Write a sequence for this structure.
């Protein structure tokens, strides 16, 4: 038998005070900043997230907990049933996790858009305690400093990336501040057959609405015609050239953020995930989008 320590995520999940007796957590796939488990207890199913603060990524679990509770109150996310340092227990949602192929069709985007709008317009009214700001351009600068501290082999790439980040920030201009999810990967949507759920609030915080819109489309390869529809439907007005350009700048920023996030993970993460391949994929997509922006 392998000895279990406090650092063993499965052991931490099993040891929570919430359980009525011994439990057997079953590992679930999907988490790349935390470990996820399904636990059965009292005849019920529970979803357990195990993860400590990750300051280098700006992940602070107190803020994630506050956003998760507010998201449930706003009708977006499952209920938080229990919390201990480094662990949160949610009501289990039985459903299908979306894929990029499921996100892209217009009918699914029409279902997703109200969740984003509710997150931006209603979630903040349920928040309690301190919350964070998610500003991608600060994140780029901080990531670069952390990569320098870690003597990352990515250092020669940083000056050009930061110059492009500065250009994107200038192009974006003034923003409308909303409380955003800021991590709209397909795996953060669950379809239970009746409705959609928006989960995982690790990076939630005040940001530009354009980040979530660009993040959703860049992560899931949404077609340009559907991006145009999404912008018009979100703002409830015709899309102008000025809005298109600001949106495209933030979409590029979303791709750059995912690229540099993965560069950081290459140096700091202990999870079993091919971060190098993830970096190369998003770096290529960012450079392509940035070249297109220069011609926009």
């Amino acid at each position: 038998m392998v000895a279990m320590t406090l650092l063993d995520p499965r052991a931490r999940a099993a040891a929570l005070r919430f359980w009525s007796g011994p439990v057997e957590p079953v590992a679930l796939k999907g988490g790349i900043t935390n470990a996820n488990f399904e636990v059965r207890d009292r005849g019920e199913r529970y979803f357990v997230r195990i993860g400590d603060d990750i300051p280098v990524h700006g992940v602070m679990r107190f803020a994630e907990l506050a956003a998760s509770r507010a998201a449930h109150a706003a009708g977006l996310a499952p209920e938080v049933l229990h919390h201990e340092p480094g662990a949160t227990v949610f009501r289990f949602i039985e459903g299908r996790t979306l894929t990029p192929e499921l996100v892209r069709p217009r009918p699914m985007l029409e279902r997703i858009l109200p969740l984003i709008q509710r997150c931006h317009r209603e979630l903040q009214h349920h928040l309690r305690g301190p919350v964070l700001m998610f500003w991608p351009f600060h994140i780029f600068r901080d990531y670069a400093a952390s990569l320098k501290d870690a003597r990352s082999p990515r250092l020669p790439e940083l000056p050009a990336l930061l110059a492009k980040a500065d250009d994107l920030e200038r192009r974006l201009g003034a923003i409308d501040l909303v409380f955003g999810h800021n991590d709209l990967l397909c795996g953060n949507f669950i379809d239970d057959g009746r409705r959609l759920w928006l989960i995982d609030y690790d990076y939630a915080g005040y940001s530009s609405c354009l980040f979530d819109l660009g993040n959703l489309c860049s992560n899931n390869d949404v077609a340009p015609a559907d991006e145009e529809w999404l912008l018009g439907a979100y703002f409830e007005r015709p899309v102008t050239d000025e809005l298109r350009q600001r949106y495209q700048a933030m979409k590029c920023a979303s791709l750059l953020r995912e690229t540099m996030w993965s560069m950081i993970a290459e140096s700091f993460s202990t999870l079993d995930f091919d971060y190098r391949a993830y970096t190369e994929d998003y770096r290529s997509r960012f450079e392509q989008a940035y070249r297109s922006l220069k011609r926009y």
Observations:
- Confidence is low (pLDDT under 50) at residues 1-6.
